[in-house]
Design a protein that fits this description.
With 736 residues, the chain is an alpha+beta fold. The chain has 13 helices and 36 strands. Helices cover 21% and strands 29% of the residues. The strands form six sheets. Strands 6, 7, 8, 9, 11, 12, 14, 15, 19 and 20 form a ten-stranded antiparallel beta sheet that branches. Strands 28-27-26-23-22-21-30-29 form an eight-stranded parallel beta sheet. Strands 5, 10, 13, 16, 17 and 18 form a six-stranded antiparallel beta sheet that branches. A hairpin with a 5-residue loop joins strand 16 and strand 17. Helix 5 packs parallel to helix 6, helix 8 runs parallel beside helix 9 and helix 10 packs parallel to helix 11. It is globular and about 75 Å long. Bound molecules: (2R,3S,4R,5S)-2-(hydroxymethyl)piperidine-3,4,5-triol. (2R,3S,4R,5S)-2-(hydroxymethyl)piperidine-3,4,5-triol (DGJ) binds next to loops.
Length: 736
């Protein structure tokens, strides 16, 4: 078996060697005489090899080196005195904790006899199209690790994950199982960018120097979390700007607890290791069992932070989000949460639906409060029957009317939660996550259902399936309003109880996958009290996300800017809500609110019963405007021209996939010292093409006739914005 593989391998390598240059845009080459692999994708090359000890060692990650044969065999690095031995100075692709490793391990395990030494050496490889599998094995036991490398030719993204196989005849407990370790070129002078937050203040971008030592960004909360998002970018602050210079970036596809360790060793080797959070982690593999780690995606560009984002956005649209690049555009939706909160009723919702449809809404969503005995957040979660007082005729008349008004219908659910004051909890208290005999910690008066239990998973799937089967529902807003506490799971052996961190998320994915398979037209929004569950794992199963409960337009500019560093603006739902804003009391003009919300996927979230005829008229016009630019905003390339943080000005531009339309949004937050709006230099246009330029309000941009792309990019636009919270949008239509 093995020799047959090696014959294939040798044949494969002869073919790849003879065709080595120029390589296709996505390619995996193997140089068997040196045991070196060269992965090419998009503008990136990634290389690693087997060193003289048999370890898999990183060789290169950076700009494209088309001549793969240039990469020399891997040689273990030397020791630095007796304290930093070669096993720790050598950048391994997937280091086990053993043999004197002082940097972050990718795998840490305990064998049945108490032995904790894991030293992984190369065994074999298999290539299948764009996916390479490398087999490693512990030097003294039958613990195997399979590393997977998959290249995405279009974007240059490289996906890595691992599978740990216990081929020993006794149980092995994994204490850390990471997806990948990514080593950067040796040396100092790197900068790290990452996103943190909290409820109502997600997507805060931080930039700092990478220092010797380790920087940990993580969630120990059971889900992705508001606290930090599993995305990173590392640049060279002395060379990198928004538009130029090297950036290494990555994002994890996992919706449970996760961790990134960004490390600079004492020898100035920078590395990012990421995967399952090892905190409270113990995953027992019985003989013959295996564990797969989440996908960790990464890329490189020389085009600055802006291009790093654009690559990720394209990758998400092409390879992560359901439906691929031509997935349906996000409809303009109406949601009454901020208008009515729990006070929903058939008449109230229908009155709002009438108004929303007149404004041009395409989807009407009933939020929290429609089910069980849900009058406040104290009761009802778990009891997913239509509340008969609020909807005496069930949902059907509402859905029928919504359809008659030309909209489709969506509804809010929070399937993973239960209120102690609910029939479900009274019947199944053992389904709530808890350590038996210990008090529960409630949060928003609710508890988590232990989705790791298969009976809970099946129950949740069954009622969701019935809800969607029995009602014409196009869309679920899937909410999740607390983090974990007391993560007990006493239904399984003591040694398996910590598997809850992984099993919960697998069952969540299973429910979503089965629901989607059974209801292929159903769309889902991932919401977790705002943006607490946005990651490349949940995005494989949801069309859009709710980035924040903070709908104040000024705060949103910063949140949205942070969001777009990692995620495409097309999935970023943004509602226009009422002022003064419920969260911070700020009042900004309707136009500003619309311009901010149109920078993502536009929604309406105000109490339309209170809007004046003038506001309703203006809103109708803005919605119509949005529909004309929507494909460009949702599927185009985003250029962050002026960042909102630390400035009273900001501007973003989107260029459509076919290059025929550009859209600019510009904001003056607060006028200071009568300072004019800085010239806006557009990007991503064709130098020699001619564009018709039009501002949404003519007085904000003097008529300039048709002008060239070169003029717009080099001379730029001088916008007339004045006062506090002024804003505009400009369209650039390419002339045939
Ligand atoms: C939190 C969400 O983020 C809100 O939009 C809303 O759906 C509430 N939950 C409802 O309880």
């Amino acid at each position: 078996m093995k020799s047959a593989r090696w014959v294939t391998l040798a044949l494969f390598s002869i073919v790849t060697l003879s065709l080595a240059a120029p390589a296709a845009r996505g390619d995996i080459q193997y140089f068997p005489e040196r045991k070196v692999w060269v992965l090419e994708a998009g503008e990136t090359t990634y290389a690693f090899g087997v060193n003289e000890r048999g370890e898999l060692q990183s060789i290169y990650w950076g700009a494209r080196v088309a001549h793969g044969a240039d990469f020399q065999a891997a040689h273990a690095r030397g020791e630095i005195a007796s304290f930093d031995i070669s096993t720790t100075t050598t950048p391994q692709e997937y280091p086990g904790w053993g043999a004197g490793l002082y940097t972050e391990p990718a795998l840490k395990a305990t064998y049945a006899d108490g032995n904790r030494d894991v030293v992984l050496h190369f065994v074999d490889q298999h290539l299948d199209g764009n996916t390479l599998e490398i087999e490693l094995k512990d030097i003294a036991s039958a613990l195997q690790v399979h590393l997977y490398y998959r290249v995405f030719p279009e974007t240059g993204i490289l996906e890595r994950w691992s599978r740990i196989d216990n081929k020993t005849d006794q149980a092995v407990t994994l204490e850390s199982a990471q997806s990948a370790a990514w080593s950067l070129p040796q040396g100092e002078g790197y900068g790290l960018h990452y996103l943190t937050g909290r409820w109502g203040a997600e997507w805060q971008l931080h930039s700092e120097a990478v220092q010797t030592g380790a920087r940990v960004i993580e969630s120990r909360r059971g889900s992705t979390s508001h606290q930090a998002n599993p995305w990173f970018a590392i640049d060279r602050p002395d060379q990198t700007t928004e538009e130029n210079g090297p950036v290494w970036f990555g994002a994890l596809g996992w919706s449970g607890s996760w961790r990134f360790t960004i490390e600079q060793s004492a020898m100035q080797q920078v590395r990012v290791t990421g995967g399952f959070n090892p905190f409270d982690f113990a995953y027992r593999l019985k003989s013959g069992e295996q564990l797969e780690t989440p996908p960790f995606y990464a890329g490189f560009t020389n085009g600055g932070m802006g291009e790093a984002s654009r690559i990720l956005h394209r990758f998400e649209r092409q390879s992560i989000l359901p439906g691929g690049e031509n997935a349906a555009l996000r409809p303009v939706l109406y949601n009454s949460w901020e208008a009515t909160e729990f006070d929903v009723s058939e008449t109230g919702q229908l009155a709002l639906a009438e108004r929303a449809s007149k404004l041009g809404a395409e989807r009407f969503v009933i939020d929290d409060g429609w089910f069980g005995q849900r009058k406040t957040d104290h009761a009802g979660l778990g009891d997913w029957y239509v509340n008969p007082q609020k909807f005496p005729h069930g949902l059907k008349p509402v859905i029928d009317r919504v359809h008659a008004l030309g909209m489709d219908f969506g509804i809010w659910v929070e399937p993973e939660m239960v209120n102690p004051d609910s029939d479900l909890y009274r019947k199944h208290p053992e389904w709530a996550m808890n350590f038996p005999g210990r008090p529960h910690t409630e949060s928003r008066n609710q508890l988590l259902l232990n989705l790791a239990r298969d009976d809970v998973r099946d129950y949740v799937f069954q009622w969701l399936d019935q809800l969607v089967t029995n009602n014409d529902i196009a869309f679920l807003k899937w909410d999740y309003n607390r983090n974990w506490s007391e993560p007990g799971w006493d239904a399984v052996d003591t040694a398996d109880q910590k598997k809850i961190w992984v099993a919960y998320v697998h069952n969540l994915y299973d429910i979503l996958d089965r629901l989607r398979a059974k209801h292929p037209k159903l769309e889902i929004e991932s919401c977790s009290g705002g943006g607490g569950r946005v990651d490349l794992g949940i995005l494989r199963r949801t069309e859009e996300v709710w980035p924040s409960d903070n709908t104040d337009a000024l705060d949103r500019l910063t949140l949205q800017d942070g969001f777009t560093h990692a995620y495409t603006p097309g999935i970023m739902m943004a509602w226009v809500t009422d002022v003064p804003n419920g969260m911070n009391g700020r009042s900004v003009p309707l136009k500003f609110r619309f311009m901010v919300a149109m920078s993502g996927s536009l929604g309406l979230g105000g109490n339309l019963n209170k809007w004046t005829p003038e506001e309703l008229q203006a809103a109708t016009e803005y919605v119509a405007y949005y529909k004309k630019i929507r494909p460009t905003v949702q599927r185009g390339s985003l250029y962050r021209l002026i960042a909102p943080e630390g400035s009273e000005f900001s501007a973003n531009e989107y260029v459509s996939r076919d290059g025929r339309q550009g859209v600019l949004f510009a904001f003056l937050h607060s006028q200071r010292f009568n300072t004019p709006f800085p010239t806006v230099f557009l990007r991503g246009l064709e130098e020699n093409a001619m564009y018709k330029v039009q501002a949404i309000d003519a007085q904000q941009l003097p008529d300039m006739g048709n002008v060239s792309g070169a003029y717009l990019m080099h001379h730029g636009l001088d916008l007339k914005l004045r006062g506090d919270y002024d804003s505009t949008s400009v369209t650039l239509e390419k002339l045939p």
